[in-house]
Amino acid sequence: MSPKEKLYGDIIDSLANRNISFALYRAPEDKNIHFLAQTTGHIRTFYDLKELNGEQGFVIAPFHSGSNKPIVLIQPDCLELEKLAATPCEPLNELDDAFEENNQDASKEEYTRKFHAFVQPLQEKEFDKLVLSRSTTLRREATFSPAAAFFRASKRYTHSYVYLCYTPQTGMWLGSTPEIILSGEQGSWSTTALAGTQSLQQGELPINWDSKNKKEQQLVASYIRRQLQTLHIQPTEKGPYAVRAGELAHLKTDFHFALQETNSLGDMLKLLHPTPAVCGLPKEKAYRFILSQEGYDRSYYSGFIGNLNPSGRTDLYVNLRCMHIGKEQLTLYAGGGLLPTSKLADEWNETEKKLQTMLAITNN
Q1: Closest CA to 177 of 350, 334, 16, 340
Q2: CB of 5 within 8 A of CB of 151?
Q3: pLDDT tens per residue, range 45-81
Q4: What fold is seen in the domain 3-359?
Q5: Which of 27, 201, 235, 290 could be a cystine partner for 255, CB 3.0 to 4.6 Å?
Q6: Which residues contact 56 (CB under 8 A, 6 or more apart)?
Q7: Over the Cα atoms of the chain, what is R_g?
Q8: pLDDT at 134
Q9: Which pLDDT belongs to residue 67?
């Protein structure tokens, strides 16, 4: 790290210990890093995305909200990191430890069992697509710096949205994601369909995609299109085209549309989330199946994160390549879309490659 990054990093790394809720983020292709913190008042929590209608702040939303996994809204009162260098501290709560106790690694054998449990109803045509994910844990080294990992990710993953955030309710999370769920301002808005995965070819985007990846992307794009049409929105589309995310490539379709009523963004988010890129089809049935059969709590992985501002700029991203940073361990997450034709070895290897996005920044 540069001397300036080291100075800022020391402050950032102290914020969670001082129980200060904050977010540090860098937008795709942007050289500027943005910081915000809430130093006073209670962090607001919600349990239904519709409750975000008319709200403004930095949102951290889980895959499935519940009593111990709320939708969290940081409403910043500080945008200058230097001002927090001498802010008084409060005792850190124990939510991180409770989080870690409830998460266990999925071994290859456990993943194999779940893979077959997911593929069978796909082959029986109960679902068009299901997303199977897993987590893995690493011991947190004494020298690990969340801020240093963020700066490494910011430099390494220039095409993605990179963030580091903390609240007492969520614990600390670090991630890098290329997938917008909702972005825009005034009357101009967009969302994306991102699905299909393969490795870069000699550092370049692949030209050819197999039928499984094309089908997976088509399902997500069709879902986005249908959901927007229920609001009588006729979007203009660009894609699918290949995009880079770390050392992987995905297929992406952009949807652009006008939106005159911006005080109901929570309604739109509820309509879109969770997309088939992280859940499945049919949506509600797949959602229930994953919650009952995946065997662990995704927490804030495959939720969404970012700035919500109905009267200004909104940029919300699906929380894909990410990790929870606990006191003693790091919990990394990855998943992949399954179709009836999916092969176990291919899907396991895909999650291994996706985990590398966060693994690559955990070491100096």
Answers
A1: 334
A2: yes
A3: 999 999 999 999 999 999 999 889 999 999 999 999 8
A4: Anthranilate synthase (3.60.120)
A5: 235
A6: 75, 308, 309, 310, 311, 312
A7: 20
A8: 97
A9: 83
Q: What whole-number distance in Å separates Cα of residue 284 and Cα of residue 247?
A: 32
Q: Measured in whole angstroms, how far is the alpha carbon of residue 165 from the centre of its chain?
A: 12
In whole angstroms, what is the distance from residue 142 CA to residue 145 CA? 9
Q: How many CB atoms lie within 10 A of CB 352?
A: 14
Token digits of residue 235: 């979007």
pLDDT class of 364 with cuts at 50, 70, 90: low
Which residues, 6+ apart, have CB-to-CB distance to 270 below 8 Å? 48, 49, 50
User: What tokens were used for 304?
Assistant: 């969404």
CA–CA gap between residue 227 and residue 220 (Å, rounded): 11
Percent of the chain predicted with pLDDT > 70? 94
Query: Is pLDDT of 90 > 80?
Result: no
Contact 130, 122 (CB under 8 A): yes
Rounded to whole angstroms, how far apart are CA atoms 257 and 260?
10
Determine the pLDDT at residue 103. 53
- Residues 154 and 76: their CA atoms lie apart, in Å, by 22
- What burial class does residue 303 get, using C-beta atoms within 10 Å of its C-beta: 0-12 exposed, 13-18 middle, 19+ buried? buried
Q: Break the chain into its structural domains and give their ranges.
A: 3-359
- Global confidence as pTM: 0.94
* pLDDT beyond 80 at 95: no
Report the Cα 41 to chain-centroid distance in Å: 26
Question: d(Cα 199, Cα 220) in Å, to the nearest integer?
Answer: 20
Tokens found for residue 119: 């593929």
d(CA 362, CA 26) in angstroms, rounded, equals 18
- pLDDT value at residue 87: 53
Task: Write out the two tokens for 188.
Answer: 């101009």
pLDDT digits (tens, 9 = 90+) for 184-214: 998 899 999 999 999 999 999 999 999 999 9
Question: What pLDDT is stored for residue 14 in this prediction?
Answer: 92
